[in-house]
Specification:
Layout lengths: L1 H10 L15 H17 L4 H13 L3 H29 L1 H18 L6 H18 L2 H11 L4 H29 L2 H22 L27 H12 L3 H31 L4 H26 L4 H18 L10 H13 L4 H12 L3 H30 L3 H19 L13
Helix pairs in contact: 2-7, 2-8, 2-9, 3-4, 3-8, 3-11, 4-5, 4-6, 4-7, 4-10, 4-16, 5-6, 5-9, 7-8, 7-16, 8-9, 8-12, 8-15, 11-12, 11-15, 11-16, 11-17, 12-14, 12-15, 13-14, 13-15, 13-17, 15-16
Length: 437
């Protein structure tokens, strides 16, 4: 009798079974993680230009201006491809575009092993890798952020922007060691293999839209259906551009970001290592300093994303550019054969400011241009890379002409002061940026 009662009690629970909880970590964070790893894989090539200037000059006798021209083509295409890539992602999906882009990067980097003429460097290093890396540019991060997040957008933008610096951190010391120990060719092959290794992760794990897996974007209160593919990717990218260029904020954002590119990718990333080498610093030591910039870039960019969620983006940009300009004015006095504390301070300071400009710039694009913000940001990024391309080329020409980089450091510092003033006059948009309490 007791056994029957116990069985009955066990079979009839006194309290209703609580509903099953959904996953503790929203799928958007997993997509952001895959995007982070993908950008790291693509960033391997971004580590190469600075450490290959001297080896290519020694191997082929090319001037720094010639090598800088190839870097210039790469940087320009990196920017000009971005808005079209953002539109292609709307048409064909993020996964397909990114997988093809990584394959093109691997092809371009791998083919440089067999080059023997400067035009081949421009074709492989400039054209192919420029197109591939441009499709993996920050417009990719903007597309992922816009689709998968309605909250914490500034933070996510900072994290994904920092991925490029993380790639530099991971690959730069390794690649510089390979170049010094073996040759520049094994370093190029390493980059190609790194890009290819990421492709399977992209194809299997990078979903195009939350609706593909039946989820809402992170922070959204309602389910967002997946929009229909947008035909005419090139036409849409140009249409958005023609609309944006009729507004004042676009030119201010494009101008400040051009100066940003000139003072980072074009100047420090391309010319810091050879400039330090000119002063007697070993190649590996100079490359390691550039990698340290990557360490603090991660911290600075993530912090900038956090600040962007809470403070006015215009003022943040003004502070970032002003501090960057001041630091560049001191750099000519810091270059020496050895690594000393003032140089380390410059590296840490510049690293914190490296692409801290991205989250507030993207926030201003979102504030001004709404659903077209990813494509508009792609065009703003194009100006970033055009500025970088000009300084990558002109910096090499200045070194060939004057025998020093000093004039380039001073001119870039002055440009950063101009960018700080331009940031302050950007007017408020029609809709506020997403804020986090």
């Amino acid at each position: 009798m007791t056994q029957t009662t116990d069985a009955t009690v066990a079979a009839t629970p006194s309290e209703p079974t609580p509903p099953r909880r959904g996953p503790r970590v929203h799928r958007a964070w997993w997509v952001a993680a895959v995007t982070f790893v993908t950008i790291i894989g693509a960033a391997a090539f971004r580590s190469l230009p600075g450490i290959l200037v001297d080896p290519l000059q020694d191997d082929f006798g090319w001037s720094r201006g010639t090598i800088g021209a190839a870097v210039s083509v790469n940087l320009a295409l990196y920017g000009l491809t971005a808005p079209f890539a953002a539109a292609l992602m709307d048409r064909f999906g993020i996964r397909r575009v990114v997988a093809v882009a990584l394959t093109v990067i691997a092809l371009g980097s791998g083919l440089t092993v067999w080059m023997d003429s400067a035009w081949q460097l421009i074709l492989c290093w400039g054209l192919l890798v420029g197109l591939g890396s441009g499709s993996m540019a920050l417009a990719f991060a903007a597309t992922v952020t816009n689709r998968w997040f309605t909250e914490r957008r500034g933070l996510v933008t900072g994290l994904l922007t920092a991925a490029s610096a993380s790639g530099q951190l991971i690959f730069l010391p390794v690649l510089s060691w390979i170049v010094e120990t073996y040759d520049w060719r094994p370093a190029a092959v390493t980059v190609a293999l790194a890009a290819l290794a990421v492709v399977p992760f992209v194809w299997l794990l990078l979903h195009d839209h939350p609706a593909d897996i039946g989820q809402k974007p992170y922070g959204a209160e309602e389910f967002v259906p997946k929009p229909a593919p947008v035909p005419g990717a090139a036409r849409r990218a140009l249409k958005v551009l023609f609309s944006a260029v009729r507004t004042g904020p676009f030119w201010l954002l494009a101008g400040t970001f051009a100066i940003c590119g000139a003072s980072t990718n074009g100047l420090i990333q391309t010319h810091f290592v050879p400039a330090a080498h000119d002063h007697g610093m070993p190649l590996t030591a100079a490359a390691s300093l550039l990698a340290v910039i990557g360490v603090f870039d991660v911290i600075g960019t993530v912090a900038s994303g956090w600040f962007t969620d809470r403070f006015e983006a215009r003022r943040l940009l003004a502070v970032y550019y002003a501090l960057r300009g001041v630091s560049l004015l001191f750099l000519p006095f810091l270059l020496a054969p050895g690594v000393h504390p003032p140089m380390i301070f410059f590296i840490v300071f510049y690293g914190l400011d490296w692409v801290a400009t991205v989250p507030p710039t993207l926030a201003l694009c979102r504030e001004q241009y709404g659903e077209d913000s990813a494509i508009v940001f792609g065009w703003v990024l194009a100006s970033h890379q055009i500025g970088a391309a000009l300084v990558a080329f002109l910096g090499g020409v200045a070194r060939d002409t004057f025998g020093t980089y000093d004039v380039v450091w001073y001119a870039s510092g002055a440009l950063c002061a101009v960018a700080a003033l331009m940031s302050l006059v950007i007017r408020r948009g029609p809709t506020p940026a997403v804020a986090v309490a």
